[in-house]
Amino acid sequence: IFNHISTAFAHTTKSRIDNEVREQFYPTPVLPDTFIDLVENMEEERLTEITPGLIKGWPNTYTFTKAIAEELVRTRAGELPVCIVKPAVVLGSYTEPSPGWIDKQTVMASPVGFLLGCGIGVMHVLYLKRDNQFVITPVDYANNAILAAGWDSVQNRKAIDSEVPIYIVGTATSNFTWDNLLNTLRTDELVKIITPKALYYVCAAHTSNPIVFWLLTWLFHYIPGYFIDAIVNILGVRPKGLPSLVSIYSKTYKLCKVYEYFLFNNWKIRDDNLVSMMDRMAPADQAIFGCNVREIDQRGIALSMSVGLRRFIVQDGLKDSEYGQKKMRILKYVHVVCVLLYSYLIYSVFRTIYSADRAAALSDKPEPFILRSLYSEIIPNPLWQNHPLTSSTLSEARGSVRLLLTKKHPCGGWATGCRATGSGFDSRTEQLFVSGCHVYASLGENHPITSPALGEAGGSVRLLLTKNHRVPSPGLSRSRGNLLRCPQLRILLNIK
User: What biological function has been recorded for the protein in this entry (predicted)?
Assistant: First the structure.
């Protein structure tokens, strides 16, 4: 008997998305022997160049070569009893040899690693579609199917339609979705078995948008990872053999992109041959070699995964769960404080960048002054058409920006509305005018204003007046919300 192990995703091509994938052979774009000769005789660089066109329709070389291998088995089978077993996403065991048994290699090479990272408080961003199917195969079910398929392909060869029977261990009819799995993991029963070795509060955001995923990965993985790695390296407290957080997050990000095709698409994977095989088995054999994934309870698989990850990967002995719950309650408050501080830090960084950009506009370097630009873009609309600035003094403005408009301030430029002479001003309006000699503030004495009306201008005149005195945008929009686009108006600011 020859039992070939493939994967349920060997023929989940782009053309079959949302369609059935049955336990049968599908045509391949190239014959197996031709493909083998091509790989063995072509230069590696040239082979790399033609690979995208060669595997067109398949998501990667792994599934493509699995499809080619299945066709090779079919053409070379001859009279030898041959069968093909195709597990889906292999998880830890459901019952044997122990509920949840799993090894590190399986964790690192499958989406189970995402659940482990979330469970110990290391991963905080998931890249998936919650309503997508999660086609799984517990490892003990895969092993049982391999043994049972070998027996069935010999014992019942005449009853099998195909000369090379195919058995898919995993089905879309079980209605396993990421949403159901994540909701099950949040139930009180599973929350109670949280590991006491958790490093941080267990929480995770999820998204199906690649740009948002990239942004969240930087915010919640890379930036904190660089910060923590720097502290650990400075203090010299990194455990021997433990990789850096940044390297872990980099591998996680790449793994998410590898699984993207399978996490965001659905196929109606059928397992009819496997179910028929189970029906041909005696009740005792069905109990011993159970491999029908349809019978798996979703709550049970979530529980076995949680227990298995704690017992065989985290290795906490399944002890001190109550301490783990208390620790998680404390970490929740720590998490809230960290989020607030982190949010303030990000706000401060962006505010500093914004202020630096505004300060660059106030550079001391001489720039050409165009009176027409000043007249048409800055002065008329916002400042001398029915928009009084209700103030006689703004000298108490906070921060590094103070508008000194209560006295005469020299300004090199022609009048934009009229040209005042001496120390007088145009009494027809209560507005600001730029004359050939001075900037006047004809605001009267009955309009006091304090610093909160301006707020922290951050290096630019944004005129953040009170709600009752808003300055309209048309005149400011083209000058980037600031009256200082022309360097000659810098005289209006006193920057420390």
Answer: Catalyzes the reduction of fatty acyl-CoA to fatty alcohols.
